[in-house]
Amino acid sequence: xxxxAVGGGLLALVIGVAIIGYLAFGSKSPGGGSTxxxxxxxxxxxxxxxxxxxxxxxxxxxxxxxxxxxxYPAALDELTKSAPLPALPxxxxxxxxxxxxxxxxx
Length: 106
What we know:
The protein is mainly alpha-helical. The protein has helices at 2-25, 38-69; strands at 27-28, 34-35, 94-97, 102-105. The radius of gyration is 24 Å and the shape is rod-shaped.
């Protein structure tokens, strides 16, 4: 009887570890798709938040430039005379449209 209880407890432990692993790290499906886990989703959220903070700062500087000069900067380099642009997360770059003053991270 005791062996059955130990075996059942061990099975519950193995299932619990498998569930935690799935939630934390996601899964790969046979068709090549994947389900992101908590760790991956958390990293994506942090990257997105970092980009949004940097973009908000750059957008503010673009609006200040437009208010002071009556036009949007021709290039983002015009905004770097007093201070560099905020750094974007690795692998991202600014995309700027001088006609509209719109900027985004790609």
